[in-house]
């Protein structure tokens, strides 16, 4: 199938790119584009060429799935060279998004017209790369390096209006963008085309260089450890110091080196994993979601209030329900205070705040949920409470309404059993703070209807979340693996590591926070209560709680927080307490290197992830990775725990777990059968096929 159609409008040739879903520049498209352009260039009846596109994107960039494979001709830089070298003016008609290689196509054209709603950007940095088809050389020549560099460093696209202001496009079309591009092409034929970007060295002034170098110095300080940020500086600098052709060659060499960097590989893996989650194994893609016009949230605590805000932020009317007036008043006050903070910070206008608050209707009593298309329960985490609420809701809500529990650990089928409609009951596990965190685990218990799951997925996306379908099981995916890490932290503290050492190993790996600081932030009493309820103990964590050191809120936890400080300091008393626990357990404390700590924290998580896959609680290793990236701050350039394990090698992980199991006598550390099998076969998690949860 041809990916570019050639048509004529008078003397103007229109090459329309049509390569669904997003016109990515795969080999077929590059070949078709080169061929069509050559046809138009040699056709004596054609005086100018417009490059347009069908669908929601102009061009989304290079085809990311081709990266890492042997390059296939024609290469994009060669196609762009032909465009720029064309004797007949070439005009880009940009609608939708022009990203990465897509914008580079437009930059090689002699002029650019954008639809008013178009977005233009060079987002390669987000994939651990830099522009590789001339972007770093052409953009500075068009708009100056001082403006081009920040655009490439952030990777954020700009609107058509902003692009016009920057000089990135020549015109923003009021109406049809192709018609406007044709008109511009005709004008260029009459008056002569402007010099192409590669000839525009006049923009690369000493003043521009000076301004760029200031920005480059700031970027080196901030992002010095990211090789692509450093490569970007080098490439843009080459625009000043080298000829255009040499600059292109320098850019190409830097781009090619980055392609092989494991950080870029991880980011590209994440790009596809985050899209893969939309395909739920076992559910036909033709299943349609139910309509959601109105929601209700039960429980106006921190979680419930945050969930209600998610609806209001997405423009969906929501009723926030409590048992008593005082409770709902408190909940609404908390919501108002959070919105107020956004207004103070300048991220929300007062008008928008009022609009959002107006979408939240406070109510007392479950009866207020009668009209809702979906009810999300965020009440106390206790089975009896949940069952009572679901039983009552069953008699109140309309047929077909979805009943979701925000439980983080409890058995969803047992909650569903309190109703007569298990086909409509599932879990929607938000993460705290619910109005901020992107992750949403959608728990699919046996018996729930497929369209209920699809509805929760679609709703999750409307709420701006990253929804991942998981199976039912204690702690589902994220918290179950977190618990493995929490147990590992406790083991390390007893064996000889100190809280600041454990945390430093993890922040050194790229997490924003270590497990001890995180527990202090969340409140150590939460885990304590949960352990007690399950008859579990953790000597260090329990002793800290028995001392009343619940974390930041009490000014003391694993660390000290004097005068309301948010960053903890080492606490000699806690360290003495930990040493006492080791002594009581007859453990001779020893020191651990950061690498040892990392392995002891992360390997057990990978092991738990393997069990989760074996039990069918997660459909794919990529789903687990997406959960950890969006809910637990796993650094994106490490690709998530399962991808990380693959990069280490599963054989290595198995050997390390065996050693840890032998040393501690903890059978939970024995490698999971799936992990052993994959390691024995020399495979990785990436070799697993998706299966229904
Ligand atoms: C690049 O361009 C490098 C260049 O500088 C030069 C390279 C040349 C080097 C040569 C050297 C010799 N590729 O997101 P959605 C798929 S780097 C492949 O759900 P939306 C996506 O997987 C690239 N596939 O839709 C999904 O497939 P599925 C720079 C791509 O409407 C489907 O399209 N560009 C793809 O929410 C729909 O995607 C970027 O980083 C791509 N480039 O968002 C832009 N882009 O249905 C990346 C999308 O099978 N893309 N797909 O799951 C995006 O940001 C978003 O996808 C859009 C659409 C905003 C385009």
Automatic annotation (TrEMBL):
<keyword id="KW-0576">Peroxisome</keyword>
<dbReference type="InterPro" id="IPR036291">
    <property type="entry name" value="NAD(P)-bd_dom_sf"/>
</dbReference>
<dbReference type="InterPro" id="IPR029045">
    <property type="entry name" value="ClpP/crotonase-like_dom_sf"/>
</dbReference>
<keyword id="KW-0276">Fatty acid metabolism</keyword>
<dbReference type="Pfam" id="PF00725">
    <property type="entry name" value="3HCDH"/>
</dbReference>
<dbReference type="InterPro" id="IPR001753">
    <property type="entry name" value="Enoyl-CoA_hydra/iso"/>
</dbReference>
<comment type="similarity">
    <text>Belongs to the enoyl-CoA hydratase/isomerase family.</text>
</comment>
<keyword id="KW-0413">Isomerase</keyword>
<feature type="domain" description="3-hydroxyacyl-CoA dehydrogenase NAD binding">
    <location>
        <begin position="295"/>
        <end position="471"/>
    </location>
</feature>
<dbReference type="InterPro" id="IPR008927">
    <property type="entry name" value="6-PGluconate_DH-like_C_sf"/>
</dbReference>
<keyword id="KW-0560">Oxidoreductase</keyword>
<dbReference type="GO" id="GO:0016853">
    <property type="term" value="F:isomerase activity"/>
</dbReference>
<dbReference type="Pfam" id="PF00378">
    <property type="entry name" value="ECH_1"/>
</dbReference>
<dbReference type="GO" id="GO:0003857">
    <property type="term" value="F:(3S)-3-hydroxyacyl-CoA dehydrogenase (NAD+) activity"/>
</dbReference>
<protein>
    <submittedName>
        <fullName>3-hydroxyacyl-CoA dehydrogenase</fullName>
    </submittedName>
</protein>
<comment type="similarity">
    <text>In the N-terminal section; belongs to the enoyl-CoA hydratase/isomerase family.</text>
</comment>
<dbReference type="GO" id="GO:0070403">
    <property type="term" value="F:NAD+ binding"/>
</dbReference>
<dbReference type="InterPro" id="IPR006176">
    <property type="entry name" value="3-OHacyl-CoA_DH_NAD-bd"/>
</dbReference>
<keyword id="KW-0442">Lipid degradation</keyword>
<dbReference type="Pfam" id="PF02737">
    <property type="entry name" value="3HCDH_N"/>
</dbReference>
<comment type="pathway">
    <text>Lipid metabolism; fatty acid beta-oxidation.</text>
</comment>
<keyword id="KW-0520">NAD</keyword>
<dbReference type="InterPro" id="IPR006108">
    <property type="entry name" value="3HC_DH_C"/>
</dbReference>
<dbReference type="InterPro" id="IPR018376">
    <property type="entry name" value="Enoyl-CoA_hyd/isom_CS"/>
</dbReference>
<keyword id="KW-0511">Multifunctional enzyme</keyword>
<dbReference type="GO" id="GO:0004300">
    <property type="term" value="F:enoyl-CoA hydratase activity"/>
</dbReference>
<keyword id="KW-0443">Lipid metabolism</keyword>
<feature type="domain" description="3-hydroxyacyl-CoA dehydrogenase C-terminal">
    <location>
        <begin position="597"/>
        <end position="683"/>
    </location>
</feature>
<dbReference type="GO" id="GO:0006635">
    <property type="term" value="P:fatty acid beta-oxidation"/>
</dbReference>
<keyword id="KW-0456">Lyase</keyword>
<feature type="domain" description="3-hydroxyacyl-CoA dehydrogenase C-terminal">
    <location>
        <begin position="475"/>
        <end position="560"/>
    </location>
</feature>
């Amino acid at each position: 199938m041809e990916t570019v159609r050639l048509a004529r409008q008078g003397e103007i040739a229109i090459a329309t790119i049509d390569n669904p879903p997003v016109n990515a520049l795969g080999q077929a498209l590059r070949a078709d584009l080169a061929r069509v352009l050559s046809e138009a260039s040699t056709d004596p009846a054609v005086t100018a060429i417009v490059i347009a596109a069908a669908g929601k994107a102009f061009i989304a960039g290079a085809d990311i799935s081709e990266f890492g494979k042997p390059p296939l001709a024609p290469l994009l830089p060669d196609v762009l060279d032909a465009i720029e070298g064309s004797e007949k003016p070439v005009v880009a008609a940009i609608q939708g998004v022009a990203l990465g290689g897509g914008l580079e196509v437009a930059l090689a054209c002699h002029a650019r017209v954008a639809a008013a709603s178009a977005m233009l950007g060079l987002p390669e940095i987000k994939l651990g790369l830099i522009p590789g088809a001339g972007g770093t050389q052409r953009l500075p020549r068009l708009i100056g390096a001082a403006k081009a560099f920040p655009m490439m460093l952030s990777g954020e696209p700009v609107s058509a209006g902003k692009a016009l202001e920057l000089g990135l496009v020549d015109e923003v079309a009021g109406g049809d963008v192709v018609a406007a591009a044709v008109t511009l092409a005709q004008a260029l034929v009459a008056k002569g085309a402007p010099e192409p970007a590669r000839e525009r060295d006049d923009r690369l002034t000493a003043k521009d260089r000076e301004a760029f170098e200031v920005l480059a110095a700031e970027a080196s300080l901030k992002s010095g450890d990211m090789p692509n940020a450093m490569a970007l500086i080098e490439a843009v600098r080459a625009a000043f110091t080298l000829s255009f052709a040499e600059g292109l060659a320098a850019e190409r060499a830097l781009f090619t080196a980055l392609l092989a960097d494991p950080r870029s590989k991880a980011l590209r893996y994440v790009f596809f994993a985050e899209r893969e989650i939309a395909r739920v194994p076992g559910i036909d893609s033709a299943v349609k979601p139910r309509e959601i016009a109105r929601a209700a949230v039960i429980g106006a605590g921190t979680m419930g209030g945050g969930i209600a805000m998610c609806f209001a932020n997405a423009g969906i009317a929501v009723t926030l329900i409590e048992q008593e007036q005082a409770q709902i008043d408190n909940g609404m006050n908390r919501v108002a205070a959070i919105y107020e903070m956004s207004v103070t910070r300048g991220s929300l206008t007062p008008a928008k705040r009022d609009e959002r608050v107006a979408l939240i209707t406070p109510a007392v009593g479950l009866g207020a949920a009668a009209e809702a298309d979906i009810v999300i329960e965020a009440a106390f985490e206790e089975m009896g409470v949940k069952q009572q609420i679901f039983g009552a809701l069953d008699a109140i809500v309309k047929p077909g309404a979805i009943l979701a529990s925000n439980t983080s650990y409890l058995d969803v089928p047992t909650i569903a059993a309190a109703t007569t409609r298990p086909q409509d009951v599932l879990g929607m596990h938000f993460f705290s703070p619910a109005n901020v965190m992107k992750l949403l685990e959608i728990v699919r218990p046996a018996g729930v209807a497929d369209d209920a799951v699809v509805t929760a997925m679609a709703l999750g996306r409307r709420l701006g979340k990253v929804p991942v379908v998981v199976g039912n099981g204690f702690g589902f995916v994220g918290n179950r693996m977190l618990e493995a890490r929490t147990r590992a932290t406790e083991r390390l503290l007893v064996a000889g590591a100190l809280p600041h050492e454990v945390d430093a190993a993890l922040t050194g790996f790229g997490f924003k926070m270590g497990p001890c600081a995180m527990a202090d932030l969340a409140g150590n009493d939460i885990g304590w209560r949960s352990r007690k309820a399950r008859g579990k103990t953790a000597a260090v964590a329990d002793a800290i709680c028995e001392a009343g050191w619940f974390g930041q809120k009490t000014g003391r936890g694993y660390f000290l927080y004097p005068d309301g400080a948010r960053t903890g300091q080492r606490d000699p008393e806690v360290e003495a307490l930990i040493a006492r626990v080791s002594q009581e357990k007859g453990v001779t404390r020893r020191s651990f290197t950061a690498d040892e700590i990392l392995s002891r924290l992360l390997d057990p998580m990978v092991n738990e992830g393997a069990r989760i896959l074996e039990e069918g609680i997660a459909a794919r290793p990529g789903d687990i990775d997406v959960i950890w990236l969006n809910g637990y701050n796993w650094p994106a350039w490490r690709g998530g725990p399962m991808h990380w394990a693959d990069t280490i090698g599963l054989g290595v992980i198995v050997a390390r777990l065996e050693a840890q199991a032998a040393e501690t006598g903890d059978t939970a550390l024995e490698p999971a059968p799936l992990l052993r099998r994959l390691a024995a076969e020399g495979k990785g998690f990436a070799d697993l096929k998706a299966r229904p949860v």
